[in-house]
Structures are given as structure tokens and as C-alpha cells.
């Protein structure tokens, strides 16, 4: 899936082969870091970019909601 979770890129898709990336926030001088994380959801191993400001439980909950939305669109 490669969807960003959290931060200014929340919901955006980013395809690359890196393990992490950083981006600037245009509204402040903050640098936001994203780490590639994998979640087992609905019997699939899916990749997401997780903002370093989120803990694992929050990221997993948001990843599940992205998957539910996608499955709703595919029906």
C-alpha cells in the first residue's frame, strides 16, 4: 500500500525502496521522519510509512482504517 500514516503526508502514497525518509513541514521549521512499517492485516502483509510522532498502536489502528476504506471502494 505504501500509504503515509500521520504527519503532513497522512493518506498520501509514496513508492520507493528506502526504509525511511524525511520531509519538511511548510507551516513550520519541523522535519518529519517516516519509517517503513509492515502490518499483517486481513491475512496480508502490507507496508505503510509511519510518522515518527505515532506509536505502534496508533499506527496499526490507522492502517486498519485505510485498509477498511480501500476494501469498501473495491466492493
- Got a strand count? 4
Average pLDDT figure: 88
Largest sheet entry: 4 strands, mixed
Output the strand order for the largest sheet. 1-4-3-2
Question: Could you tell me the strand content as a percent range?
Answer: 35-45%
Uncertain spans:
none
| Distance from first to last alpha carbon | 18 Å
* Rg: 13 Å
Shape type: globular
Instruction: Classify the secondary structure makeup into a structural class.
Output: alpha+beta
Q: Spell the H/E element sequence.
A: EEEEH
Give the helix level as a range of percent.
Answer: 25-40%
User: Number of helical runs?
Assistant: 1
Characterise this structure:
The chain is an alpha+beta fold. It contains one helix and four strands. A four-stranded mixed β-sheet has the order 1-4-3-2, with helices on one face. The chain is globular and about 40 Å long. The protein starts with a strand and ends with a helix. The relative contact order is 0.25.
Question: Concise description?
Answer:
The protein has 75 residues and is α+β, with helices and mostly antiparallel strands.
Amino acid at each position: 500500500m505504501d500509504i503515509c500514516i500521520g504527519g503532513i503526508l497522512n493518506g498520501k502514497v509514496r513508492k520507493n525502496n528506502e526504509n525511511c525518509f524525511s520531509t519538511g513541514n511548510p507551516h513550520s521549521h519541523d522535519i518529519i521522519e517516516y519509517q517503513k512499517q509492515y502490518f499483517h492485516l486481513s491475512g496480508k502483509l502490507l507496508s505503510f510509512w509511519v510518522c515518527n510522532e505515532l506509536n505502534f498502536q496508533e499506527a496499526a489502528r490507522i492502517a486498519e482504517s485505510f485498509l477498511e476504506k480501500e476494501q469498501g471502494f473495491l466492493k
